[in-house]
Amino acid sequence: MQPGVMKQMVWKMLVRDKQLYLLALPAIIYFLLFKYWPMWGVLIAFQDYSPFQGFWNSDWAGVKHFQRFFTHNDFWKLMRNTLAINILSLTLFFPLPIFLSLLLNELRVPWFKKTVQSIIYLPHFLSWVIIVGISFLMLGYSEGFVNNMLAAFGMERIEFLTDPNKFWLLLTLQVIWKEAGWGTVIFLAAIAAVDPQLYEASRMDGAGRLRQMWHVTLPAIRNVIVILLILRIGHMMDVGFEQVYLMMNGAVAQVADVFDTYVYRSGIQQGQFSYSTAVGLFKSVVGLVLVVGANYLAKRLGDDGVY
Questions:
Q1: Which of 66, 122, 147, 233 would be 157's cystine partner, CB 3.0–4.6 Å?
Q2: Per-residue pLDDT of the chain (307 residues; tens, 9 = 90+)
């Protein structure tokens, strides 16, 4: 197709759908200003950036900061902690909203279904400060409710918050309590779009409710599950700074320190802007590779993928 003909077709499309593009214009401007334009800032990962010299006048350093990070004593510790927390979240948290959605879909009393949904949605709207505060009130060693109950029954108190062996699981349980209910929103919407005739046909073939879930509902929402799984895999290098930072203490520092807290400590507290940007860029590149790889694998297995 000739460039002139292509230009005419694009112009006709813009004129025809001008109202839709005007509607999308604020979002486009937002992403250009706050998502794409700041991406130039990753250049300081290759500089010895100084706020006094500015963005363009700072000395170039090549890959010095990346070499320093990859040879740092904390690199493998950060990698271990970040991946361990995310793998636990992927295996324990990700399937739970799907399971909850299947159960909610089977509820036949409307008022009860709405009540249950409201109850499990509520923790999502609580900040991590409140969630961590509740955790300290419930699990604290000396004043925590759980340990006070154990002491009242003559049992030994348990170090929930300062035991390194329990820290990763504790973070995962917090995420489950806070976000599992909210995670059902997309899956319930996908289940609502399933053709009712499929359920009728399965009932005629003698399928009970469990078989309908397994052979009708889950295959029907498979593409949604795969897309969300791919996006989740892309966040394998992100743990969530606020939750980990609030839960961290000296006793669990060796298992709690992740890339996000390391970037905050080296970049904000110590002023190593170029070094911390290099760490953040490394995280982003790994996330991109994971998304592309997971999407490629999904397509090879016959799913649509993200793109």
A1: 147
A2: 556 667 778 788 888 888 888 998 999 999 999 888 888 888 899 999 888 888 888 888 889 999 999 999 899 999 999 999 999 999 999 999 999 999 998 888 889 988 998 999 999 999 999 999 999 999 998 888 999 999 999 899 999 999 999 999 999 999 999 999 999 999 999 998 888 888 888 888 888 888 888 888 888 898 899 999 998 998 888 888 899 999 998 899 999 999 999 999 998 888 899 999 999 999 989 999 999 998 888 888 877 777 7
Closest CA to 194 of 105, 97, 305, 306: 105
Q: Dihedral, CA atoms, 160, 163, 164, 165, nearest 10 degrees? A: -70
d(CA 244, CA 266): 16
Query: Distance between CA 62 and CA 84 in Å, rounded?
Result: 31
Polymer length in residues for the chain? 307
Q: Which string of DSSP letters, residue by residue, matches 231-295?
A: HHHTTTT---HHHHHHH--GGGHHHH--HHHHHIIIIIIS--HHHHHHHHHHHHHHHHHHHHHHH
Tell me phi and psi for residue 132, to 5 degrees.
-65, -40
pTM of the model: 0.85
Q: Phi and psi for 48 in degrees, rounded to 5?
A: -95, 75
Q: How crowded is residue 78: how many other Cβ atoms within 10 Å of its Cβ?
A: 20
